[in-house]
Amino acid sequence: MRAARSPGPSRLIWMFTIGPIDLASIGSYAGQSPRCSMVPPSGQGAAVMNRILPPAGPPRVLALAQLVNSLGDGAYYACSALFFTRIVGLSPTQVGLGLTLAWGTGMLAGVPMGHLADRWGPRRTALLLALLTAAALSAFLVVRSFPAFLVAACAYACCQAGLTSARQALLAGLDPEATPLRPAVDVPAGQLLLMPAAWGGYAGVKVATVAPGNPERGLPRIQGVYLLLDGRTLAPLAALPGIALTSLRTPAVSALAVRHLAPQGAASLLVFGTGPQAWGHVIALREVRPVERVTVAGRDQDRAAAFAGRCRALGLEAAVAAGPDRTRRAVAEADLIACCTGARTPLFPGGLVKDDAVVVAVGSHEPAARELDGDLIARATVVVEARGAALAEAGDLITPLSAGMITDGHIAGNLADLVGGGVIPGAGPGVFKSVGMAWEDLVVAAAAYRKWAASR
Predict the structure, then answer these.
(1) Does this UniProt record's set of keywords contain Protein biosynthesis (predicted)?
(2) In 205-275, which ranges are continuous DSSP H helix?
(3) pLDDT tens digits for 218-265?
(4) Model's pTM, two decimal places?
């Protein structure tokens, strides 16, 4: 078991709440500094406000609504005791016991109510529970006995617990399915990708390039730049190097999925690829699981050996899977498998993967390219960032779907479903297929900017 490390000053706390990551190490491995060109907020007061208040727009309005609701709750608690004892005729002991039991019931109802918000959507759930809360409060007007009071109080507490969960989901303001698909333009050297998104007080766009021939030139396959904007005025706030940003957010999203899919004791990791994403996944996955052994599979054996050496420098056992036989054996033994390549055909036979293993595939985002075969997809619990994006861009899913090996309903859920507890694992392995989405870049870029602004 690896001992916990104390985060240093250069560490950025992931927005996905999975722990700290050293942005400098990923940026340096990618060949770019993680430094950003920032436009400071106007005045010292703006920095303080950015630190205290939620982002401008709907999140700030919802936070104000929550404040007003809390003040109303306080007034309710103070006045209800007088109403129930002097008007209804209950004893103080009955009122205290009833409210205690009611709020205990509300605490237990919080989790299933949160799942309801994940399933129905936070807006619809919040509206329904607000109406039910009003009905429960109205019921107090006709209460004339302790049993009736207890039923009404429990109903009110449960509705309030669910309403709080729905408000928190609305404050988060992120729906993976609502993110627009990115346009991709083919050019002679590869592809140009445009990835815009808006959330809370921020908007942003990443211009990314994919050049398949770059690794042979000693250059990154994926490059780009990110422009972070103020959500209200669309004024530029920061320009961030695309490689450093992508090398941070993609492993972070994968680690979030692994945290919820993989067994707690997953200790062996097989990595396909030797580029920035492969390295980022080694760093990220060992933050959420006790990874002790890393096996590297790459086309260039020299680069694979150098990659294994970097893993050993972190205190990990590391080896290179040289040749098809060793690669197949590594697949069969691995607890975690990270596919971070530009491959257009499956990297290994899916039937070799253990039933309790978790496979992450992040290398392809084209309908005709895939790293995983249909056999693995068909027997796996499959989670994606968003169903719409995966069914439009993920060849790992589109190919077996076209061949009739799976149906649309084979996807067990998206990231929101997974985190909310809505994904039920099957008997086979887990698979997380990522194509990369604009909201992920925006969340991480906004977090970096807020951290920078707060330090001014």
Answers:
(1) no
(2) 242-261
(3) 888 888 999 999 988 999 999 999 888 888 889 999 999 999 999 999
(4) 0.66
